[in-house]
Amino acid sequence: MRSIAVLVVGALVAGAAACGGKPPEFSGSDASSMKVGLAYDIGGRGDQSFNDAAASGLDDAKRNLGLRTVKELEATPGETDAQKSERLRVLAEAGYSPIIAVGYAYSEPMKRVAPDFPATRFAIVDDTMARGPNISNLLFAEEQGSFLVGAAAALKSRTGHVGFVGGVQSPLVKKFEIGFTQGVKYIKPEDTVDVKYVAQPPDLTGFDDPAKGRLAAQGMYDAGADVVYQAAGGSGAGVFEAAYQQHAWAIGVDSDQAKTAAPEVRGNILTSMLKKVDVAVYDYIASILDGTVKSGPTVYDLRLGGVDYSTTGGHIRDIQPRLEELKQEIIVGKIKVRAA
């Protein structure tokens, strides 16, 4: 885990000037006395996806770094920014530092709360807009990992017809869609890519509605798709159910979902796009302990090992050499993957 942290220390200073001044200095902390607060997005621990990846990083930090005191709070469907702000404020007033917010939905709440607690460290996953001398932005090159699973979909599809199901049509989730489509078209320009979003903003329930996820994927399979990639949080469970029912392939996201999804659907998960939120959470906590924490953005890309694809089940063993070639071509810049 710490190998990535060593690589990114230099990059962590990026964006500090945009925060309005020099970030506060932290000379290191004692893990046994550190109080870590984790504010989950909708679905929380147990969503088998994005939130669980963050939870895994926290668990690794508890196990390997000696953390003793943690507090985990979870967003609820339909809640307001004021409620999210109150969640962050409750943690800060109780002396938790750092406080890690999982998801861009915490952007405005963090902008409101972090300035009131200048001695508290905050981090936010997947957001660049909340900036401040005590805020770290943990970002990912989702489009790069999605390109690779898009290539996998094209290489394994027998119908030349694949699909993408997103949770909420937001700039972040569009990165998954755009990268996936580019990967498919790079391999087979003539292939068809269906796209469906479970919900439109400001409705964020699209990340926690398996029934709608199943319906979206079912429509694609009925239309001839034989591989569907989901970036839909808890709604992705419905995509897997549809793949199981249709004897088709699905592609997971964030975590290695062939290990975490319901046992009956795991055999239908071709691969998963790994977004290593666990690594970012772990490294962020470790950087506070060793006194190297900085404010501003860090982008976890293929080069830093922040995104990748899974191989569980052995379903892509035959195409893995080609995927590895594509990965290296992205890393060296031969292939440019668009994010928008």
UniProtKB/TrEMBL annotation:
<keyword id="KW-1003">Cell membrane</keyword>
<keyword id="KW-0449">Lipoprotein</keyword>
<dbReference type="InterPro" id="IPR050957">
    <property type="entry name" value="BMP_lipoprotein"/>
</dbReference>
<keyword id="KW-0732">Signal</keyword>
<dbReference type="GO" id="GO:0005886">
    <property type="term" value="C:plasma membrane"/>
</dbReference>
<dbReference type="Pfam" id="PF02608">
    <property type="entry name" value="Bmp"/>
</dbReference>
<protein>
    <submittedName>
        <fullName>BMP family ABC transporter substrate-binding protein</fullName>
    </submittedName>
</protein>
<dbReference type="InterPro" id="IPR003760">
    <property type="entry name" value="PnrA-like"/>
</dbReference>
<feature type="domain" description="ABC transporter substrate-binding protein PnrA-like">
    <location>
        <begin position="41"/>
        <end position="338"/>
    </location>
</feature>
<feature type="signal peptide">
    <location>
        <begin position="1"/>
        <end position="18"/>
    </location>
</feature>
<keyword id="KW-0472">Membrane</keyword>
